[in-house]
């Protein structure tokens, strides 16, 4: 998630929709007092320094000993990431980098009214497969994709393989009404970002780092991974997104 006072925009970071890549790319244009939650490691890996505010805030708020230990071990940016996540989770929810629109509006009231708000949406069948590959990365005996989808439907964490909240609907809607100014389709990402950055006064160069390239696969042929049952499960779970954004299998 990004709140940019310099360019007056709020980016709500949807899951498995290139959010980390977008964060890294846009962080290059942020001001010193802007807020970035999530993708700190990806920023540093790509030579992009997060706003000074994030380091200051990490040092300002009391944190658990385990977080301060990262600083003592010299892992400065791991400390910054963990410290800010711990602090902002108390006001934005468990995963502040993926904060819901409702929580962001509540905390950043004036910015919500004055800034341009945007998020990215993605075909739920493709997104779910991408999430599966991300969650089982490095596992020697991962659950099957069908098991993953069924566990998702049943609310079964499957040994922490299935994340607790997979919906992106809350990043763009409040009380089931779209509340952001611009919704960019993942399938038209570069074009959508080019329009958005022009609107907020950023001379964007089109660079989007593949921040999670090593742990994702080519999911353009996502249909090959589904059967009728799992296809319908995703239809039921993400019915609001599918209907509103007119996604098809």
Q: Which terms would index this structure?
A:
249 residues, alpha/beta, 2 domains, five-stranded mixed sheet, two-stranded antiparallel sheet, 13 helices, 47% helix
3D architecture notes:
The chain is an alpha/beta fold. It has two domains: about 1-120 and about 170-215, no CATH class; about 125-165 and about 220-249, no CATH class. Helices cover about 45% and strands about 10% of the residues. It has helices at about 20-25, 40-45, 50-60, 65-70, 75-90, 100-105, 110-115, 125-135, 145-155, 170, 190-200, 230-235, 240-245; strands at about 1-5, 10, 35, 115-120, 175, 175-180, 180-185. The chain has a five-stranded mixed beta sheet with strand order 3-1-2-4-7. Strands 5-6 form a two-stranded antiparallel sheet. It starts with a strand and ends with a helix. The model has no long low-confidence stretch (mean pLDDT about 90).
């Amino acid at each position: 998630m990004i709140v940019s006072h310099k360019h007056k925009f709020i980016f709500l970071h949807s899951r498995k929709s290139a959010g980390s890549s977008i964060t890294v790319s846009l962080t290059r244009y942020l001001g010193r007092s802007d807020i970035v939650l999530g993708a700190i490691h990806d920023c540093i890996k790509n030579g992009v320094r997060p706003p000074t505010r994030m380091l200051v805030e990490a040092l300002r708020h009391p944190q658990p000993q385990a977080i301060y230990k990262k600083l003592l071990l010299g892992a400065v940016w791991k400390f910054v990431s963990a410290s800010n996540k711990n602090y902002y989770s108390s006001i934005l929810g468990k995963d502040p980098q993926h904060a819901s629109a409702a929580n962001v509006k509540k905390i950043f009231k004036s910015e919500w009214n004055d800034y341009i708000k945007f998020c990215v949406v993605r075909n739920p069948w493709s997104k779910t497969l991408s999430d599966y590959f991300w969650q089982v990365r490095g596992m020697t005996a991962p659950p099957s994709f069908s098991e993953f989808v069924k566990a998702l439907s049943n609310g079964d964490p499957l040994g922490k393989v299935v994340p607790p909240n997979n919906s992106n609907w809350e990043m763009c809607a409040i009380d089931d009404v779209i509340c952001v100014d611009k919704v960019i389709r993942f399938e038209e990402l570069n074009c959508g970002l080019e329009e958005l950055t022009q609107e907020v006064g950023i001379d964007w160069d089109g660079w989007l780092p593949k921040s999670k390239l090593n742990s994702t696969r080519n999911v353009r042929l996502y249909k090959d991974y589904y059967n009728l049952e799992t296809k319908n499960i995703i239809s039921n779970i993400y019915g609001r997104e599918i209907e509103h954004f007119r996604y098809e299998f």
